[in-house]
Amino acid sequence: MEGLLGLLILIADIYAIIKIVQSSASGLKKLVWVLLVLVFPIIGLIIWYFMGPGGRGG
Predict the structure, then answer these.
(1) Number of domains forming the structure of the chain
(2) Does some domain include residue 57?
(3) Per-residue pLDDT at 11
(4) CA distance readout (Å), 42 to 5, 14, 36, 49
(5) How many CB atoms lie within 10 A of CB 54?
(6) Which of 10, 41, 43, 58 is least crowded, fewest Cβ atoms below 10 Å from its Cβ?
(7) In this structure, which long-range contacts are made by residues 21-29, counting pairs with CB atoms below 8 Å and at least 24 apart in sequence?
(8) What is the pTM of this model?
(9) For residue 58, what pLDDT is reported?
(10) Burial class of residue 43 in the structure, from the number of CB atoms within 10 Å of its CB (0-12 exposed, 13-18 middle, 19+ buried)
């Protein structure tokens, strides 16, 4: 079961990184968001979803 959960998190992180790279944010902001998602896969994904470039919060 952990393997499936890990795979789902990996897929979500890859999706987030693709969306970050495609966003209109500056290069430095993109880099910071990508690093946040890579270093903190679950927390970074949640923060990106609500606060990131094109996120729900702004």
Answers:
(1) 1
(2) no
(3) 95
(4) 11, 12, 10, 11
(5) 12
(6) 58
(7) 23/52, 23/53, 23/54, 24/53, 24/54, 25/53, 29/53
(8) 0.81
(9) 44
(10) exposed
* Cα 13 versus chain centre, distance: 5
Predicted confidence at residue 55, as pLDDT, reads 56
Q: What does the alpha-carbon distance between residue 3 and residue 26 come to, in Å, rounded to a whole number?
A: 35
Assess contact for 3 and 36: CB atoms under 8 A: no
The domain of 46 spans 2-51
Handedness of CA 11, 58, 23, 40 (dihedral sign): negative
pLDDT (tens digit, 9 = 90+) per residue, 1-57? Answer: 789 999 999 999 999 999 999 988 888 999 999 999 999 999 988 998 888 766 554
Residue 24 lies in a domain: yes
Residue 37 falls within a domain, yes or no? Answer: yes
